Amino acid sequence: MPDASQYTQIRRLQANLDSNIGISKSKLRAPGFYTSYYAGYSIPNFPINTLISNKFTQPPPPPADNTIHLSDIATESQTGTWTLNGTTDILFGKTLTINDGITLLFSTYTLSNYGTIVINGTINASLYDTSALNNFNKVTNNAHIILGGSKFTNKSGSNLLNNGTIDFDNNFDNYGQIDNYSAINLTNSDANLTNYSGATINNNSLGVITNHGTINHNIGATINNYLGATINNTTGATFNNNGTYNGDGTCTNCGL
């Protein structure tokens, strides 16, 4: 058995193996590698090849659980309906999925997303005007977001991918990118969608933005309204176009 000083050498060798995981097994076993790389690691009668072999055959650590479960952040008040427990952050690298048939209510709280939210059910933040949804990274809506009088802020560098329906009657502020393939509805005269400088709205084929309120398209912002897409400003609605507008889609009452 190795003595105490030799155990120290073993630990030093293991530390070097740990910090040089990119070194291939064949290189570790190559003639002269021990003497050139591990000079001074002379451990009599110690099976050094076993140590190296174990380094490459030990099982990998279990994968991190990056899933946020609804039960982590909300309470089920009735079957399929969950209410946010408080102001909540979805951290970077974490994913929250709202499954089909499930509704997440916001109550008076704010949900800030730094990771990923996938909506296959419903997010309903319409019960209280003091609640809010802030997106700092990625939100994919495949079903329904009901904001009511709550505020949605799509932060700079973030992305909102809409394959479902988004309804709101308050402020929707875009500093990032919105990719719309379905329906975004400014439901009444109080609704306000503002596309800030540096932000982009891509209204793709079959995408429809229906405006009963106000769209502010600011200097330095971009709207791409592609062929087959529609921006419909209804009677009495306002479309303030001061940014860059591109595309061959339909834009009703846009004044372009």
What does this protein structure show overall?
This protein has two domains: 4-57; 67-252. It contains five helices and 27 strands. The chain has helices at 4-19, 25-28, 33-37, 48-57, 70-73; strands at 67-68, 74-78, 81-84, 88-90, 95-98, 103-105, 110-113, 116-119, 122-124, 132-135, 138-141, 144-148, 151-154, 159-162, 165-168, 171-174, 177-180, 183-186, 192-195, 200-203, 208-211, 214-217, 222-225, 230-233, 238-241, 244-246, 250-252. Strand 2 (74-78) and strand 3 form a beta hairpin. The chain is globular, with a radius of gyration of 28 Å. Residues 21-46 have low confidence and may be disordered.
Write the layout of secondary structure elements.
Elements: H1 4-19, H2 25-28, H3 33-37, H4 48-57, E1 67-68, H5 70-73, E2 74-78, E3 81-84, E4 88-90, E5 95-98, E6 103-105, E7 110-113, E8 116-119, E9 122-124, E10 132-135, E11 138-141, E12 144-148, E13 151-154, E14 159-162, E15 165-168, E16 171-174, E17 177-180, E18 183-186, E19 192-195, E20 200-203, E21 208-211, E22 214-217, E23 222-225, E24 230-233, E25 238-241, E26 244-246, E27 250-252
Parallel strand pairs: 1-5, 3-6, 4-7, 5-8, 6-9, 7-10, 8-11, 9-12, 10-13, 11-14, 12-15, 13-16, 14-17, 15-18, 16-19, 17-20, 18-21, 19-22, 20-23, 21-24, 22-25, 23-26, 24-27
Antiparallel strand pairs: 2-3
* Major β-sheet strand ordering: 2-3-6-9-12-15-18-21-24-27
In the predicted model, the low-confidence regions spanning at least 5 consecutive residues are 21-46
Number of helices: 5
Q: What percentage of residues falls in helices of 4 or more residues? A: 10-25%
Query: If you average the pLDDT, what whole number results?
Result: 85
Major sheet summary line: 10 strands, mixed
**Count of extended strands:** 27
**Assembly type:** single chain
Radius of gyration, in angstroms, nearest whole number: 28 Å
End-to-end gap: 85 Å
